[in-house]
Fold this sequence. Notes:
Blueprint: H1 2-20, H2 26-31, E1 35-41, E2 58-65, E3 68-80, E4 83-96, E5 99-102, E6 105-112, E7 115-118, E8 122-128, E9 131-134, E10 138-144, E11 147-160, E12 163-169, E13 173-179, E14 184-190, E15 205-212, E16 217-224
Amino acid sequence: xxxxxxxxxxITLLLLFIFCGPAIxxxxxxxTKYEYRAFQFTFLFPPFSTNGINNMNxxxxxxxxxxxxxxxxxxxxxxxxxxxxxxxxxxxxxxxGFGNTxxxxxxxxxxxxxxNVVGGSMNGVQxxxxxxVVGGGVKGLQxxxxMNIxxxxxxGVQxxxxMNIxxxxxxxxxxxxxxxDGRQMLITDIHTPIYQLDISCFDKGIYFLTVRSKDNVITxxxxxx
Length: 225
């Protein structure tokens, strides 16, 4: 029983470190001097790695860990059995059994069983069993079993089982509603990925809804009851 309690305490401390650990701001990123290494292996969890206690200031071409990997960044490939944590940036491929955490930006592919989190922008593909979160813009694809969140401009596709959120889209689109007799009832330019149309003031009947973007035109029939 005591060993189980100790194991739970260790796991709790690790999770606190992962989700509440030291964040790095943009100004600090620019001032930090990183060392570049070809390879890092983390034996179980940090700082027990080939880079020792300096792992947070090392950007590795390749990084591997059977449980938790922690480094300043990765340039080619990273894989961990549980979680990858990169203080600054990831370029290339990042794989984790549970989650990937990147402090600044990521370019490439992130795949995780539960979550992917990027503090800055994401350029490439995110695939997670539950949620993807990007603090900045997203260019590419976000795919998640539950939810995708983009904190900046979305230039690509979000696909989720429950909800997709982006604070702006790269290209605006026009929404127009026309009545059966050809009267233009509404026309507006939209600059957000989520927009609610209010047709409460329309008379009952059939209308045509047209959405125009730079590349596509879609028209659908709607019925006001």
